[in-house]
Amino acid sequence: MVPRKKPGVRARGLGAELAALRSTTGRTVTDIASALGWSKSTLSRLENGLRNIEPEEVSALLAVYGVKGVERDRLIGMSKNLDEPGWWAVGLPGLPSESATLASYESEASRLISWEPLLVPGLLQTMEYTRAFMLGDGIALDQVEMRLMARLRRQQVLKRAGLEFLGVIGEAALRSGVGGPDVMYAQLKHIRERSKERSVSVRVVPSDSPAHPGMVGGFMLLEFPTARPVVHVELARTAVFLDEAPMTGPYQEAFERLDAVALSARESQQLISGLMRELR
């Protein structure tokens, strides 16, 4: 028997939509599972995105729920594309598996919130800044260029319609000397220009801000149209992904605290412009 592939965010999103449809009928998991001759755990796992769902299973559920026409075609179509690969799934030499997973999640998210106290968020980095940081971090030279290519492709997600990006950056990250004055000047200019785009917002947390949960370290909060949010926490040479409410909740609360101490978008632009003048 061929093992099932591990479900991704698309499976979780489809499961959430099917659960919402069941809820509108007023019927329980036990009731629907019994009607289809399934076990209760099977339907529960499908609705929670714990395993991929086959088109035939979606069709059976939609028949019970009375869903027809365009909506039926859309949901069945979703089930057929759960394993459709993006560039991250095809793979690039030198690209860690954690980076590929993050890119996959980013491609499905409706909102990305990135908090970085000491670095410019990856989706806002210039290639020169990224190269300087990677070399300073001890990444082998033969891996740097492939990782740069992957980073550049990841950044294309900011052009996707319907995506909102909020980069919250510690002032210390903007005052660092990564790559030298010329690299930092270009990086600050890039942040300022990207922050003028409708879907991109940048907020700076001043160095003299009172204590807040974000001081522990950086993270990215990824929100989806129907699936549960995911938190990405980068570690040395690896990363972790959290999607259970007890684990993601503290990060959502941390962002609320960061939102309270961060400068407004306009004030942040003014600070960035001031730092640029200091470098010239």
Automatic annotation (TrEMBL):
One of its GO terms (molecular function) is DNA binding. CDD domains: HTH_XRE. Signal peptide: none annotated. Residues 18-72 form the HTH cro/C1-type domain. It comes from the Bacteria. SMART domains: HTH_XRE (SM00530). This is XRE family transcriptional regulator. It comes from Saccharopolyspora aridisoli.
